[in-house]
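[Discussion] Sanity-checking designs against the backbone

I'm trying to build intuition for which residues belong where. Below is a C-alpha coordinate string of 306 positions. I'd appreciate it if someone posts a full sequence so I can compare it with mine line by line.
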Protein backbone atom coordinates (compact mmCIF):
# COMPACT_ATOMS: atom_id res chain seq x y z
CA UNK A 1 0.00 0.00 0.00
CA UNK A 2 1.16 3.55 -0.71
CA UNK A 3 2.71 5.52 2.16
CA UNK A 4 1.07 8.76 0.92
CA UNK A 5 -0.98 10.56 3.58
CA UNK A 6 -4.64 9.55 3.76
CA UNK A 7 -7.74 9.61 5.92
CA UNK A 8 -10.82 7.39 6.37
CA UNK A 9 -13.58 8.80 4.20
CA UNK A 10 -13.93 10.60 0.90
CA UNK A 11 -17.00 12.54 -0.21
CA UNK A 12 -17.96 11.35 -3.67
CA UNK A 13 -20.98 12.48 -5.69
CA UNK A 14 -22.95 13.38 -2.58
CA UNK A 15 -21.97 10.57 -0.22
CA UNK A 16 -19.18 9.91 2.25
CA UNK A 17 -17.57 6.58 1.37
CA UNK A 18 -14.53 4.59 2.53
CA UNK A 19 -11.19 5.95 1.27
CA UNK A 20 -10.36 2.63 -0.44
CA UNK A 21 -13.69 2.53 -2.26
CA UNK A 22 -13.30 5.96 -3.86
CA UNK A 23 -12.29 4.54 -7.26
CA UNK A 24 -13.08 5.36 -10.88
CA UNK A 25 -13.10 3.33 -14.12
CA UNK A 26 -9.99 3.32 -16.32
CA UNK A 27 -12.08 4.83 -19.14
CA UNK A 28 -12.98 7.87 -17.05
CA UNK A 29 -12.88 10.72 -19.56
CA UNK A 30 -10.71 12.99 -17.39
CA UNK A 31 -7.99 10.35 -17.09
CA UNK A 32 -7.60 10.39 -20.88
CA UNK A 33 -8.00 14.06 -21.72
CA UNK A 34 -7.53 16.07 -18.49
CA UNK A 35 -10.88 17.88 -18.70
CA UNK A 36 -11.61 18.49 -15.05
CA UNK A 37 -11.06 21.24 -12.49
CA UNK A 38 -9.83 21.14 -8.94
CA UNK A 39 -9.10 23.09 -5.80
CA UNK A 40 -6.52 22.84 -3.04
CA UNK A 41 -7.64 24.21 0.32
CA UNK A 42 -6.13 24.18 3.81
CA UNK A 43 -7.78 23.83 7.18
CA UNK A 44 -5.85 24.98 10.26
CA UNK A 45 -6.15 24.52 13.99
CA UNK A 46 -7.05 27.77 15.76
CA UNK A 47 -7.85 28.60 19.40
CA UNK A 48 -11.55 28.40 18.53
CA UNK A 49 -11.28 25.02 16.75
CA UNK A 50 -10.37 24.03 13.21
CA UNK A 51 -11.08 26.56 10.47
CA UNK A 52 -10.93 26.36 6.68
CA UNK A 53 -8.99 29.25 5.14
CA UNK A 54 -11.07 31.19 2.57
CA UNK A 55 -13.39 28.25 1.84
CA UNK A 56 -15.97 30.33 -0.01
CA UNK A 57 -13.34 31.90 -2.26
CA UNK A 58 -11.96 28.47 -3.16
CA UNK A 59 -15.45 27.13 -3.90
CA UNK A 60 -16.19 30.19 -6.04
CA UNK A 61 -12.95 29.62 -7.98
CA UNK A 62 -13.93 25.95 -8.47
CA UNK A 63 -17.23 27.04 -10.05
CA UNK A 64 -15.44 29.71 -12.11
CA UNK A 65 -12.95 27.10 -13.35
CA UNK A 66 -15.84 24.81 -14.30
CA UNK A 67 -17.62 27.65 -16.11
CA UNK A 68 -14.48 28.52 -18.08
CA UNK A 69 -13.90 24.85 -18.97
CA UNK A 70 -17.57 24.33 -19.91
CA UNK A 71 -18.47 21.91 -17.12
CA UNK A 72 -21.72 22.19 -15.16
CA UNK A 73 -21.26 21.13 -11.54
CA UNK A 74 -24.33 19.16 -10.35
CA UNK A 75 -24.19 20.70 -6.85
CA UNK A 76 -24.59 24.21 -5.48
CA UNK A 77 -21.75 26.19 -3.91
CA UNK A 78 -23.47 25.82 -0.52
CA UNK A 79 -23.59 22.03 -0.92
CA UNK A 80 -19.86 21.92 -1.74
CA UNK A 81 -19.04 24.16 1.24
CA UNK A 82 -21.06 21.92 3.58
CA UNK A 83 -19.57 18.74 2.08
CA UNK A 84 -16.05 20.15 2.57
CA UNK A 85 -16.71 20.80 6.25
CA UNK A 86 -18.31 17.35 6.69
CA UNK A 87 -15.36 15.60 5.05
CA UNK A 88 -12.97 17.24 7.50
CA UNK A 89 -15.09 16.60 10.57
CA UNK A 90 -15.94 12.97 9.75
CA UNK A 91 -12.22 12.26 9.33
CA UNK A 92 -11.53 14.00 12.66
CA UNK A 93 -8.77 16.09 11.09
CA UNK A 94 -7.65 19.13 13.09
CA UNK A 95 -5.39 20.38 10.27
CA UNK A 96 -5.44 19.15 6.70
CA UNK A 97 -5.24 19.82 3.00
CA UNK A 98 -8.46 19.41 1.02
CA UNK A 99 -8.51 18.33 -2.61
CA UNK A 100 -11.82 18.88 -4.39
CA UNK A 101 -12.02 17.66 -7.97
CA UNK A 102 -14.73 17.90 -10.60
CA UNK A 103 -14.22 15.31 -13.33
CA UNK A 104 -16.00 13.59 -16.20
CA UNK A 105 -17.18 9.99 -16.01
CA UNK A 106 -16.76 7.07 -18.43
CA UNK A 107 -20.10 7.40 -20.26
CA UNK A 108 -18.61 8.29 -23.63
CA UNK A 109 -15.50 7.62 -25.72
CA UNK A 110 -13.63 10.19 -27.78
CA UNK A 111 -13.53 13.95 -27.51
CA UNK A 112 -17.25 14.59 -27.36
CA UNK A 113 -17.64 15.06 -23.63
CA UNK A 114 -21.26 16.22 -23.68
CA UNK A 115 -22.70 12.87 -22.57
CA UNK A 116 -20.34 12.28 -19.66
CA UNK A 117 -21.61 12.52 -16.13
CA UNK A 118 -20.00 15.32 -14.11
CA UNK A 119 -18.62 13.85 -10.90
CA UNK A 120 -17.28 15.54 -7.79
CA UNK A 121 -15.08 14.26 -5.02
CA UNK A 122 -13.63 15.85 -1.88
CA UNK A 123 -10.71 14.23 -0.07
CA UNK A 124 -8.77 15.55 2.94
CA UNK A 125 -5.51 14.42 4.46
CA UNK A 126 -2.85 15.73 6.86
CA UNK A 127 -0.19 17.59 4.85
CA UNK A 128 2.79 19.42 6.36
CA UNK A 129 5.19 21.83 4.66
CA UNK A 130 4.74 21.39 0.88
CA UNK A 131 8.34 22.16 -0.10
CA UNK A 132 10.08 20.41 2.80
CA UNK A 133 10.34 21.11 6.52
CA UNK A 134 13.08 23.75 6.26
CA UNK A 135 11.60 25.58 3.28
CA UNK A 136 9.46 27.98 5.32
CA UNK A 137 12.31 29.09 7.57
CA UNK A 138 15.37 28.83 5.31
CA UNK A 139 14.03 29.36 1.81
CA UNK A 140 14.37 27.28 -1.33
CA UNK A 141 16.64 27.05 -4.33
CA UNK A 142 14.78 27.55 -7.60
CA UNK A 143 15.41 27.41 -11.32
CA UNK A 144 13.82 29.28 -14.21
CA UNK A 145 12.24 26.51 -16.26
CA UNK A 146 12.94 25.76 -19.90
CA UNK A 147 9.14 25.33 -20.20
CA UNK A 148 6.92 28.42 -20.54
CA UNK A 149 3.57 28.99 -18.86
CA UNK A 150 0.48 28.76 -21.05
CA UNK A 151 -0.72 31.59 -23.22
CA UNK A 152 -4.19 32.56 -21.87
CA UNK A 153 -5.74 31.51 -25.18
CA UNK A 154 -4.10 28.08 -25.13
CA UNK A 155 -5.07 27.06 -21.63
CA UNK A 156 -7.43 29.28 -19.73
CA UNK A 157 -5.13 30.50 -16.97
CA UNK A 158 -7.95 31.58 -14.62
CA UNK A 159 -9.12 27.97 -14.45
CA UNK A 160 -7.46 25.33 -12.28
CA UNK A 161 -7.85 22.79 -15.08
CA UNK A 162 -6.46 19.31 -14.38
CA UNK A 163 -4.73 18.93 -17.77
CA UNK A 164 -3.00 22.32 -17.48
CA UNK A 165 -0.85 20.82 -14.74
CA UNK A 166 1.09 18.68 -17.23
CA UNK A 167 3.02 21.91 -17.89
CA UNK A 168 3.61 22.43 -14.13
CA UNK A 169 4.69 18.84 -13.59
CA UNK A 170 7.15 18.91 -16.50
CA UNK A 171 8.71 22.10 -15.09
CA UNK A 172 8.80 20.71 -11.55
CA UNK A 173 10.34 17.41 -12.65
CA UNK A 174 12.99 19.21 -14.68
CA UNK A 175 13.88 21.40 -11.67
CA UNK A 176 13.99 18.48 -9.19
CA UNK A 177 16.15 16.36 -11.52
CA UNK A 178 18.58 19.26 -11.86
CA UNK A 179 18.90 19.45 -8.06
CA UNK A 180 16.60 22.45 -7.42
CA UNK A 181 13.57 22.59 -5.12
CA UNK A 182 11.09 24.25 -7.47
CA UNK A 183 10.65 25.85 -10.91
CA UNK A 184 9.70 29.36 -11.99
CA UNK A 185 7.93 29.56 -15.34
CA UNK A 186 8.12 32.54 -17.67
CA UNK A 187 5.00 33.61 -19.59
CA UNK A 188 4.78 33.31 -23.41
CA UNK A 189 6.22 36.84 -23.72
CA UNK A 190 9.28 36.06 -21.61
CA UNK A 191 8.21 37.75 -18.37
CA UNK A 192 8.11 35.94 -15.03
CA UNK A 193 4.76 34.21 -14.51
CA UNK A 194 4.66 31.91 -11.47
CA UNK A 195 5.97 28.73 -9.86
CA UNK A 196 4.75 25.26 -10.85
CA UNK A 197 2.08 25.54 -8.11
CA UNK A 198 2.67 28.98 -6.57
CA UNK A 199 2.49 32.68 -7.31
CA UNK A 200 5.68 34.69 -6.99
CA UNK A 201 6.61 38.03 -5.41
CA UNK A 202 9.84 40.02 -5.18
CA UNK A 203 10.90 42.84 -2.85
CA UNK A 204 13.15 45.62 -4.19
CA UNK A 205 14.01 48.81 -2.34
CA UNK A 206 11.26 48.20 0.23
CA UNK A 207 8.54 47.77 -2.41
CA UNK A 208 6.80 44.56 -3.44
CA UNK A 209 6.22 43.52 -7.04
CA UNK A 210 4.26 40.58 -8.41
CA UNK A 211 3.33 39.57 -11.98
CA UNK A 212 -0.09 40.72 -13.26
CA UNK A 213 -2.99 38.33 -13.83
CA UNK A 214 -3.13 37.46 -17.56
CA UNK A 215 -0.76 34.45 -17.57
CA UNK A 216 -1.11 33.27 -13.97
CA UNK A 217 -3.56 31.61 -11.65
CA UNK A 218 -5.44 34.17 -9.57
CA UNK A 219 -4.04 32.84 -6.31
CA UNK A 220 -6.07 33.18 -3.14
CA UNK A 221 -2.89 33.29 -1.04
CA UNK A 222 -1.55 35.96 -3.44
CA UNK A 223 -4.68 38.00 -2.79
CA UNK A 224 -4.38 37.49 0.99
CA UNK A 225 -0.72 38.56 1.01
CA UNK A 226 -1.43 41.65 -1.13
CA UNK A 227 -4.16 42.66 1.36
CA UNK A 228 -1.85 42.03 4.37
CA UNK A 229 0.96 44.05 2.77
CA UNK A 230 -1.40 46.96 2.01
CA UNK A 231 -2.64 46.85 5.62
CA UNK A 232 1.00 47.10 6.75
CA UNK A 233 1.50 50.12 4.51
CA UNK A 234 3.86 48.31 2.11
CA UNK A 235 3.35 49.17 -1.55
CA UNK A 236 2.52 46.23 -3.88
CA UNK A 237 2.67 46.70 -7.66
CA UNK A 238 1.26 44.16 -10.10
CA UNK A 239 3.65 44.51 -13.02
CA UNK A 240 5.67 42.55 -15.56
CA UNK A 241 8.89 41.23 -14.04
CA UNK A 242 11.89 40.29 -16.12
CA UNK A 243 14.08 37.30 -15.31
CA UNK A 244 17.03 39.52 -14.44
CA UNK A 245 14.90 41.49 -11.98
CA UNK A 246 14.54 38.25 -10.02
CA UNK A 247 18.31 37.92 -9.87
CA UNK A 248 18.79 41.38 -8.35
CA UNK A 249 15.79 41.28 -6.00
CA UNK A 250 16.46 41.97 -2.31
CA UNK A 251 13.95 39.25 -1.39
CA UNK A 252 11.70 36.83 -3.22
CA UNK A 253 8.98 34.42 -2.15
CA UNK A 254 6.28 32.06 -3.37
CA UNK A 255 2.67 32.00 -2.19
CA UNK A 256 0.14 29.19 -2.47
CA UNK A 257 -2.28 27.16 -0.41
CA UNK A 258 0.11 24.21 -0.32
CA UNK A 259 3.37 26.24 -0.25
CA UNK A 260 1.89 28.88 2.11
CA UNK A 261 4.53 31.66 2.08
CA UNK A 262 7.87 30.14 1.15
CA UNK A 263 10.99 32.30 0.81
CA UNK A 264 13.21 31.88 -2.26
CA UNK A 265 16.91 31.97 -1.34
CA UNK A 266 18.46 31.50 -4.79
CA UNK A 267 17.42 31.66 -8.45
CA UNK A 268 19.54 29.99 -11.15
CA UNK A 269 22.51 29.91 -8.77
CA UNK A 270 22.24 33.64 -7.89
CA UNK A 271 21.83 34.18 -4.15
CA UNK A 272 18.85 36.42 -3.34
CA UNK A 273 19.41 38.91 -0.50
CA UNK A 274 20.67 37.18 2.63
CA UNK A 275 20.37 33.61 1.22
CA UNK A 276 17.48 32.94 3.58
CA UNK A 277 14.28 34.69 4.59
CA UNK A 278 14.36 38.48 4.08
CA UNK A 279 12.91 40.92 6.65
CA UNK A 280 9.79 41.92 4.68
CA UNK A 281 9.14 38.29 3.70
CA UNK A 282 9.43 37.30 7.36
CA UNK A 283 6.98 40.03 8.42
CA UNK A 284 4.44 38.97 5.80
CA UNK A 285 4.90 35.27 6.58
CA UNK A 286 4.27 35.90 10.30
CA UNK A 287 1.18 37.98 9.54
CA UNK A 288 -0.15 35.38 7.09
CA UNK A 289 0.33 32.56 9.61
CA UNK A 290 -1.40 34.66 12.30
CA UNK A 291 -4.29 35.28 9.90
CA UNK A 292 -4.98 31.61 9.16
CA UNK A 293 -4.53 30.68 12.82
CA UNK A 294 -7.28 33.16 13.75
CA UNK A 295 -4.90 35.36 15.73
CA UNK A 296 -5.80 38.58 13.85
CA UNK A 297 -9.37 39.83 14.15
CA UNK A 298 -9.24 41.92 10.96
CA UNK A 299 -8.95 38.78 8.85
CA UNK A 300 -11.55 36.73 10.73
CA UNK A 301 -13.87 36.79 7.70
CA UNK A 302 -11.35 34.49 5.95
CA UNK A 303 -12.06 31.63 8.36
CA UNK A 304 -14.90 29.10 8.16
CA UNK A 305 -15.01 27.14 11.38
CA UNK A 306 -15.82 23.44 11.15
N1 LIG B 1 -0.28 29.09 -9.32
C1 LIG B 1 -0.50 27.78 -9.59
C2 LIG B 1 -0.11 27.27 -10.92
C3 LIG B 1 -1.06 26.97 -8.61
O1 LIG B 1 -1.26 25.68 -8.88
C4 LIG B 1 -1.37 27.50 -7.34
C5 LIG B 1 -1.96 26.64 -6.27
C6 LIG B 1 -1.14 28.88 -7.11
C7 LIG B 1 -0.60 29.64 -8.13
C8 LIG B 1 -1.52 29.54 -5.82
O2 LIG B 1 -2.91 29.61 -5.69
P1 LIG B 1 -3.62 29.61 -4.24
O3 LIG B 1 -3.49 28.26 -3.68
O4 LIG B 1 -5.01 30.00 -4.54
O5 LIG B 1 -2.91 30.64 -3.43
N2 LIG B 1 -1.51 25.30 -6.28
C9 LIG B 1 -2.25 24.30 -5.57
C10 LIG B 1 -1.85 22.89 -5.99
C11 LIG B 1 -0.56 22.38 -5.50
C12 LIG B 1 -0.37 20.91 -5.85
O6 LIG B 1 0.74 20.37 -5.62
O7 LIG B 1 -1.30 20.26 -6.32
C13 LIG B 1 -2.18 24.50 -4.06
O8 LIG B 1 -1.34 25.24 -3.58
O9 LIG B 1 -3.03 23.92 -3.38
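Best answer:
Here's mine. Compare freely.
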Amino acid sequence: MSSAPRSDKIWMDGELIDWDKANVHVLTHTLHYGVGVFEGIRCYKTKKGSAIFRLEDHTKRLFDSAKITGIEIPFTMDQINEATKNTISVNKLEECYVRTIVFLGDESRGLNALNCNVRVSIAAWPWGAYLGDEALSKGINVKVSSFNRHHPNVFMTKSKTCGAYVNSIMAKTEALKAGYDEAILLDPYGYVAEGSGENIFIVRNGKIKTPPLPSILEGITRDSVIRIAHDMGIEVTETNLSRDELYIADEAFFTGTAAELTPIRAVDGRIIGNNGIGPITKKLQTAYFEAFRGETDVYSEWLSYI
